[in-house]
Write a structure and sequence with these properties.
The protein is an alpha+beta fold. The chain is built from 8 helices and 11 strands. The strands form 2 sheets. A 9-stranded mixed β-sheet has the order 6-11-3-4-5-10-9-8-7. The chain has a two-stranded antiparallel sheet with strand order 1-2.
Length: 292
């Protein structure tokens, strides 16, 4: 009997050891299916097999743990701002030259002073805005180069405010035949032409960005010597209508304030004698070309 009991205990112990070995082997295989986090064994897996080894992170967990970085624009793709050459408050001969050059294309009506004040800043803003540049009012390298390309070096008389040499308007090819009021937004001039010959030229101004003067080829639809606007209740002497309510006409405001103001879309003329003479020459049906 004693030998039988000893045999039974031996068989039971062997069975228990076999079960323990199978259980430990499953756990070990499970933990080795996933790659370890690094090459060094962790404290949980060193030594004898543990009943509850630390699970390795799953691929999904690893991705979610990675920090999210928003890509920033590289320095090579960010265009640096142009250098500012002159700004409000500046003084000197370069400012005087700036004012004289702006006067050549009708943006500055005062005498050049060499001081970069509000009038100069407003003139620069207008020049920039008409050419699609940021209207900052400060003269940067891009603004200055554009102005140099459109004007000539001022004479001493221009720098002293005694004279203004306006560059000749580059005539649009559509102005070269027939009877035409050829109107350039670039030089702010109206040239009265017949068969390609310029008979007279006068300063003009246009509508603001909110009420722009239309560009294109039109015809004079009708004329009104003593016209008064039915919309704005303002005088429009010597009006020659070419596109709906837009007309070429004399403007007392333009004569008084220069380019510090703007029209509601019409082409304003400030020389009353010249527009009166033009009114007498232009006929209904004559061509009107408005261009840059």
């Amino acid at each position: 009997m004693l030998r039988k009991n000893v045999g039974l205990r031996t068989l039971a112990a062997a069975a228990a050891m076999a079960v323990a070995a199978v259980t430990a082997g499953c756990k070990a295989e499970a933990t080795t299916d996933a790659p370890p986090a690094d090459n060094k064994p962790s404290a949980a897996t060193s030594g004898p097999t543990s009943a509850s080894p630390t699970p390795s992170p799953s691929p999904t967990a690893s991705k979610s743990a990675e920090p999210f970085h928003t890509p920033s624009p590289s320095a090579s793709t960010t265009k640096p701002a142009p250098k500012v050459l002159m700004a409000p408050g500046a003084k000197g001969e370069q400012v005087r030259e700036l004012q004289a050059r702006l006067a050549q294309i009708g943006w500055f009506d005062d005498k050049p002073t060499g001081t970069y004040g509000p009038v100069t800043s407003t003139a620069v803003k207008g020049f920039q805005g008409k050419r699609g540049l940021p209207a900052t009012g400060s003269t940067d390298t891009v603004t200055w180069q554009r102005l140099l390309g459109m004007t000539t070096k001022p004479t001493r008389d221009e720098l002293d405010g005694k004279d203004v040499n306006k560059p000749k308007a580059k005539l649009d090819p559509r102005c070269m035949t027939g009877r035409v009021m050829c109107i350039s937004k670039t030089t702010r001039t109206l040239s009265w032409m017949i068969d390609g010959k310029v008979l007279s030229t006068m300063d003009v101004r246009f509508g603001s960005q909110y009420t722009p003067t239309r560009e294109g080829v039109f015809n004079v639809g009708w004329k009104s010597r003593d016209h008064v606007s039915t919309i704005y209740d303002t005088p429009m002497p010597y009006a020659m209508f070419f596109s709906g309510g837009q007309a070429v006409h004399y403007s007392s405001d333009f004569a008084a304030r220069g380019y510090n103001g703007a029209s509601h879309g019409c082409v304003n003329v400030r020389d009353k004698g010249k527009i009166a003479a033009l009114f007498d020459q232009v006929r209904t049906g004559d061509k009107v070309v408005v261009y840059w």
